[in-house]
């Protein structure tokens, strides 16, 4: 019964992320408009970025969310599950697909809620700024949604 409840939380995370999260596909569904290493006062591609703040708050204790860009692909850990999908860049503008593929592990409720907020943030992000060891994702209104550090 408890496992069924945790699965329901995972399903809600999928819905909150805005799309069809599926299990384990390596197919990126096509190519995106991007060119090599993307920079905005710092390198973004080829770096694993670790979340330090989401909507002004630190992740729950013991939860690590990461973000990596590789060409037209974005991937990482959303705290309990892993995800991947398409991303496009144009100068300091980023568009991360709202159709991310994700594993579907059962997570503790607090972690499941965090994952839903994290995946929603990725879909809402439209502007990035990389300054040395810090990556910031913001929305169209220039509101900072998330801050990451390299490593």
Structural description of this entry:
The chain is α+β, with helices and mostly antiparallel strands. The protein is built from two helices and nine strands; from the N terminus they run αββββββαβββ. The chain has one domain (2-150): Lipocalin (Beta Barrel). It has helices at residues 2-16, 109-124; strands spanning 48-54, 66-70, 73-77, 82-90, 93-96, 101-102, 127-131, 134-138, 144-150. Strands 1, 2, 3, 4, 5, 6, 7, 8 and 9 form a nine-stranded antiparallel sheet that branches. Strand 3 (73-77) and strand 4 form a beta hairpin. Helix 1 runs parallel beside helix 2 (109-124). The protein is globular, with a radius of gyration of 15 Å.
Task: Give a quick summary of the entry.
The chain is of the alpha+beta class and 151 residues long. It is 21% helix and 32% strand.
**Count of separate structural domains:** 1
Summarize the main sheet. Answer: 9 strands, antiparallel
Q: Hey, roughly how much beta strand do the residues contain?
A: 25-35%
User: Can you tell me the overall shape?
Assistant: globular
The N- to C-terminal Cα distance equals 38 Å
Mean pLDDT: 77
Just name the CATH architecture: Beta Barrel
Are there runs of 5+ residues with pLDDT below 50, and where?
1-41
The helix content is 10-25%
Please report the first level of CATH classification, the CATH class: Mainly Beta
Output the CATH topology: Lipocalin
Sketch the topology as an H/E string, one letter per element: HEEEEEEHEEE
- Based on CA atoms alone, the radius of gyration comes out at 15 Å
The count of DSSP E runs of length 2 or more, i.e. the number of strands, is 9
Label the structural class.
alpha+beta
Number of helices: 2
């Amino acid at each position: 019964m408890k496992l069924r409840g945790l699965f329901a939380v995972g399903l809600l995370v999928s819905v909150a992320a805005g799309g069809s999260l599926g299990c384990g596909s390596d197919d990126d569904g096509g190519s995106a408009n991007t060119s090599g290493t993307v920079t905005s006062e710092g390198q973004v591609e080829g770096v694993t970025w670790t979340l330090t703040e989401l909507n002004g708050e630190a992740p729950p204790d013991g939860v690590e969310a990461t973000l990596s860009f590789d060409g037209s692909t974005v991937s990482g850990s959303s705290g309990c599950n892993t995800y991947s999908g398409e991303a496009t860049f144009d100068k300091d503008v980023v568009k991360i697909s709202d159709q991310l593929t994700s594993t579907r592990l059962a997570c503790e409720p607090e972690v499941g809620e965090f994952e839903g907020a994290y995946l929603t943030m990725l879909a809402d992000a439209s502007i990035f700024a990389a300054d040395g060891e810090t990556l910031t994702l913001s929305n169209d209104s220039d509101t900072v949604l998330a801050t990451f550090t390299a490593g």
